[in-house]
Amino acid sequence: MVKIIMSGCSGRMGKVISDIVAADVGAEIVAGIDVVDDGSLGYPVYRSAGEIGVDADVIIDFSSPKVIDSLLAYATEKNVPIVLCTTGFSDAQLKKIEAASEKVAILRSANMSLGINTIMEMLKTAVGVFCPAGFDVEIVEQHHHNKLDAPSGTALALADTINEAAGGKFDYVYDRSDRRKKRGKKELGISAVRGGSIPGTHDVIFAGQDEVIEVRHIAYSRSIFGNGAVSAAKFLKGKPAGKYSMAEVIADAVSVR
């Protein structure tokens, strides 16, 4: 049994994960962290990590970058691993996360879905084939009109995967409206669309001479992220200090099968 602390438990993803765990005989949420508690979650909810008085094996964080300091302090003091699903961390916060990973196990991913993380592995191969052949690379992401950040954390994670596989040669271009010139070969364009109830959609486009290859992922439900987060929590239980990735969670699942 994996005992979980759910940070951001009253948010949309927090409630999705609470429902997933409630139906999972191998996991249990023993406490939540949130400023709101409507009493419907079935476990105690605390306003901050420092108030928690129960033992746990792992923290799942789907909240806000604002709480990262208190989460890291709690995790390092109690030696409780963290699955960080929150995006939008500043450079200073990322440095704190890096430092904390020397004391406790931390898995950070901008997207917890099996599909996106498998696509990231596929892109490494695609970059090795298409980029030396002169293909241009563009990423277009679409989301509902309530999404706050743009581009999405997933779009940036896809871009980083591509750029790392290409040896860091790309410069990210978010807006071409202020320029009137030919597209540069070192550009990696990232575009964001917001509207209506569009499900989270990410397209990676490799555009060459006379042929175009597109890789698309559509998220029709938040449950794909919740399932990934719970799988990551189970994987991280008992792990020594260090940085971990969803690729390792997927590899571990495949090896078990």
Q: Please tally the helical runs, counting DSSP H or I stretches of 4 or more residues.
A: 7
User: Given the C-alpha coordinates, what overall shape results?
Assistant: elongated
User: Over all CA atoms, what is the radius of gyration?
Assistant: 19 Å
Helix content: 25-40%
Structural class: alpha/beta
Helix and strand pattern: EHEEEHEHEHEHEEEEHEH
Largest sheet composition? 7 strands, parallel
- How is the quaternary structure best described? single chain
Q: Residue ranges: pLDDT <50 for 5 or more in a row?
A: none
Number of E-state strands: 12
Describe the protein.
The chain has a seven-stranded parallel β-sheet with strand order 3-2-1-4-5-6-12, sandwiched between helices. The protein is built from seven helices and twelve strands. The mean pLDDT is 94. It is of the alpha/beta class and 257 residues long. Helices cover 34% and strands 26% of the residues. The longest helix has 17 residues, at 114-130. It has helices spanning 12-22, 68-78, 91-100, 114-130, 153-165, 223-236, 246-256; strands at residues 2-7, 27-33, 45-46, 58-61, 82-84, 105-108, 136-143, 171-173, 187-194, 200-208, 211-219, 242-244. 36% of the residues are buried. The chain is elongated and about 60 Å long. Helix 1 (12-22) links the parallel strand 1 (2-7) and strand 2 (27-33). Helix 1 packs across helix 6 (223-236) and helix 2 (68-78) runs parallel beside helix 3.
Topology diagram in text:
Elements: E1 2-7, H1 12-22, E2 27-33, E3 45-46, E4 58-61, H2 68-78, E5 82-84, H3 91-100, E6 105-108, H4 114-130, E7 136-143, H5 153-165, E8 171-173, E9 187-194, E10 200-208, E11 211-219, H6 223-236, E12 242-244, H7 246-256
